[in-house]
Design a protein that fits this description.
The structure holds 2 protein chains of 2 kinds. Chain A is an alpha+beta fold. Chain A has helices at 8-19, 75-86, 121-136, 207-220, 237-249, 254-258, 319-325, 358-365, 414-419, and strands spanning 25-39, 44-60, 65-71, 104-109, 143-159, 163-182, 185-188, 191-196, 229-235, 279-282, 303-308, 311-312, 333-334, 343-344, 348-351, 368-378, 385-397, 400-405, 408-413, 423-424, 431-439, 442-451, 454-462. In chain A, the strands form 4 sheets. In chain A, strands 1, 2, 3, 4, 5, 6, 7 and 8 form an 8-stranded mixed beta sheet that branches. Chain B has 2 domains: 10-228, PmbA/TldD fold; 232-470, no CATH class. Chain B is globular and about 75 Å long. The chains are: A alpha+beta, B alpha+beta.
Chain lengths: 463, 470
Amino acid sequence: MPSLRDAESDLARALARLERRTAYADVMAQRSSGHGLNLDRQTTSPRPLPMLEGAVFRAWDGATWVESAASGLTDHALVASVDHLLGRLPTTPGKAPPGESPTGHAEKTTVEQRPAADFGIEAQIEWAKTRLDWATAVPGIENAFVNLLFESDERLFLSTAGAVRHQRLQYALGAVVPLAIEGNRVETDRVAEGRTGGVEVLDAITEEVVMHASREAKELLSAKSPPTGMMNVLLDPSTTGTFAHESFGHGAEADQVLRGRSYLAPLLGKVLGPECLTLVDNGALPGGWGSIFFDDEGHDAQRTVLVDRGRFVEVLSDRESAAQLGRRPTGNTRRADFLSRPFVRMTNTYVEPGDRSFEELIAEAKDGVVLQNFMSGIEDPLGGNMQLKVKKGRRIEHGELTEIFSSTALSGKVLEFLQEIKGVSRASDMEFTSGACGKGHTDMLNTGTGGPYLLSRAVVGPG
Amino acid sequence: MTDPGDGAFTAFRVGDRLKKLAQPPWEVFGERIRRYELHLNGARVEMIRAPVELEGYGLRLFRAADDQMGVGVAASTDLRDAGVDLALRDAEATARFARFPTRRVDLPSTAARSASVEVMDRDLWDHPLETLQRFVDALLRPFDGRKDVQPSFGSVRANLVDTTITNSEGLHRRFSHTLLEHEFAVKATGGPEGAPPGEFWVNGAARRPPIEHRVAVDVERWCRLAEDTRAGRSPATGPTRVVLTPEVLADILPAIVGFRMSGTARLRKMAPEPGATLGSPSVTILDDGLLPFGVGTAPSDDEGTTPSRRSLIEGGIARGGLYDLLHGGAFGEGSTGSGRRDAVQFPNWFHFSQSVGPRPTTIILSAGTGGTETELLEACGEGLLIEQLGYAFPDPVSGAFGGEIRSAYRIHQGRRAEPIRGGTLGGVVFAPPGSPSLLASIEAIGRQPELVGHLSSPAVVVDGMIIAGS
């Protein structure tokens, strides 16, 4: 297997050209590739993932970061990128950039119990056809989308401070989306499992969960609109995780705090929720979809407790924001790829389990809704409002789960939502979900979310 | 760089290799992109990225397999012979197992013409950083002397793209185009005591920078919306008559109408039958691949077919669909010039790595007789003017959309009244006859269309939208 280490001397030579003109520079080289499959009743589409290769150089000009990047790792591409940067740097190095510069060598690779490279096209098609058959075994479901993705993301980071960080991340994802169609009405449900690892990740997509999703999609065809207004809401694990990420995590990014764009900025150290609430970002989570070994400034990934038993105790930071806030970098500097700039980003963000059972939370809600199968969310880091969208839900009436309803949006003020939390369910309910996150509306990258069931109050309506 | 496309023949270089090694039919789509970025922290430029250079290609092979087609694909940034050979091997390997229900693919030939359309801004092409800096200056100028409203963050990004397309029929298509992306957030701290700061956060893309006067008008509006957000109250719950602005519709209609009227949806029996009633009689929707300076406009689609202007819904009735070469072949319709690697919902600034499918270009909701926005408010009487949702989260498959109301006003006695913030608005674009839907509930369409991303539309009045508030 080719390795980016083969290009290390070329990258180091290119980086050395910058040393006379800057107090600090680094380079991140990346190679990503893989394979995937889309299959449904009509089409079979195996596909190699794009082979993307290139490097981005970054230098501090004394006041501002300047960057240049190019696809390809040829001498020509590397020299051109460095030449562009030299044209923007002063003739002599100025002061050093704020923050810590990691040093030393390290190398890490995702462990695959069953390597994706050994899972050939025929095996993939057989896997997908089996899931399609399971999905369509439910009466009324004639079709389903089945997707597979195996992606390798190799990154090599070098800096003028002497850091060498080499990591290979291997992602595996499988998804089944049964389609229920009646006239103009189309409903779906979704089963998905995505983690860092190998083919073993797919083992979670069993006949039982696929057929359950098909039955739910079929039932959604005749579902009524969701109830509307302020009510008790029980978030399922996937929605709890999205809440942790979108509604809290983005506000806890230190760059947002420093630019005065976080509703959480004045609240660091304050109690925001009940003791049952502990919220974490963990880039070192084994198997997490958002797990990394090192961030794109060379810092080690780590577990960072953001909310400890209700108290907001830490923010996520890169070298510059950590220095400005007098804290240590948390290993959250991430680039979507070599074409994208680094930002403070989340990794795997989740709510730690509590001590309540699902049944206890349903009984406590008495009347309200359980929201299931997150679809998306969007942050409002300054305003502190929240918006989550789920594929489906069920009413809770007199402490019992009753009828299903379709696409639903949830909104409210995050701080009020936190204060209204009545309970968090146990570790046995804990689930992690694969997702994609943008910084603003761009630079999408893999992030994981997770949690158990969480009971609070919010506004819900069709969405 | 002095000439658009100077030296950029990405697809042709790969095609020369395929001519020697690959059996026809095949197709190569290439891009060479220079990207320039300025990132703002408040009013300060915190990062300059200049340039980010990307060159890559996507290739497809078409192999008959029984009564279907095996379509092999690959994409790469490796333009060396060894890299192209590897991509070709990958594509051949996938073609053996791929199946698509058509027996023919009619690749455009040397005789195929390309459309003459405007897709490039010369200043942006020749002087990208200077043009970006002028745009940033225009964005920041309205804040001079203001204390209660300030920029909080933003970025402007220029993409200078050489696209090349070639195939085994001898087609050689080459064109250059520009795209300017912006993201900008305005923070307001004045106004009511005790209220948190207000923010209005926008993002968009256009082929060229707006004129400075337009930027100033937009920024003034964003500042007003940010300030008013501070005083916004949650709306009442229940069915409500609303005025939806083009910005709100732009997040909903291209993604949902574009998918449900496509060959992809038709193949899966998700597309409306031609002749089906989808909306009120005032609703006419087109897809226009030739709209000057539309972000979806190009001299040819990504398969080399000339784009067209195509009616999708006329007077509320379903009409034509969108087809690429494969889906057009499957239905005996031919391509409508809609074979695209771009996506309207989650667009990527480079396309060679994306899969080809039938997708919309610019969705046009035809202007109506509802008049100006003022007249639409009068027609609405009592209701809400929705300026921005957090995000509408359109679900192309189910047609559902909905999101948090970030910026709105109550409409009282036909006039804009107090600001509204919070709660949700949602619904579905299409529904079975007799069920409420966005298109069926449109009461009035304005006469002043605006181009916002992949949509050109006036504001509309919609009755009975479900609002969930306090």
